[in-house]
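Title: Prediction job returns without error message
Component: structure pipeline
Severity: low
Priority: P3
Assignee: unassigned

Description:
Job completed but the reporter wants confirmation the result is attached to the right record. Sequence as submitted:
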Amino acid sequence: MTTATTPTRPSQPGAPGAPIVELTHASFGYAERAVVQQATLTVRPGEVVAVLGPNGSGKSTLVRGLLGLNDQLGGEVRLFGQDRADFHDHARLGYVPQRHTLSASVRATVTEIVAVGRLPRRRWWKPVVRSAADDAMIARALDVVGLADRADADVSTLSGGQQRRVLIARALAADPDVLLMDEPTAGVDTANQQVLAQVLARLAQRGTTMLIVTHELEALDDIVTRIILVQGGRIAFDGSRAEFEARTSEVGRAGYSHDGYQRDGLHHDGHHHDDELAVDRHRLPGAPSAGPLDPRGGTHHG
């Protein structure tokens, strides 16, 4: 196991324990069309929040709105106690986007991809040279996701599940205060979902705050502390896992199962899974064997 020292972070705005994310009647969308409306939400340090909902419900738009990747069309958004318009320390927000396997045309090592995550921590006037602190954080991030032994591997030779972990490591390399992940376990088989869940469990044990858009709630069952259900662009439920399970039958009457799928079977978010699984069906010869976190016999899957 690689041991790395965390660089000392300068003082940050916001009192310890203060909310990381605060939405008050916030609306997000595109070109004046609101996809998410009147969202009120608070995320505090150490929480692991699962965001559920069927396709088109607005759950990804909600997360992208927090990051400023979608238009804010109303309400208030505060990050670490600051209005989003005044917030500029974007390295504190680690983002792992949807459809986040890497193209087979990418010619870069795992370390080179993860090193990109250090760029938000670099002063613009300094030369683009990795420092000892950069190397320490890169090593630590790879260790957390179980890919320390893949540091010099070409990312195009990795399975889909390993590539997911590379991009989680890239987000971790910035030493963020919160991770926002869009479908981190989608499109991989059950065994590799469990591997990714182990990585997220490690982060939860370290006290990492996470906001996770997901359809595979069962894979994250042991780490989720809170559930948000988005339906029709509005937050339909916000509470603990126990409270959510107690209301499963009520949610079911609205046409959704406990994990946010539509019960009619027409919208199970499979539209992008096949694209991601294709990464594994076309793996290059010489792909590395299973790593310390990879399931036995599962090196040819996600």
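Comment from assignee: result matches the submitted record. Residues 96 and 181 are 5 Å apart (CA to CA).
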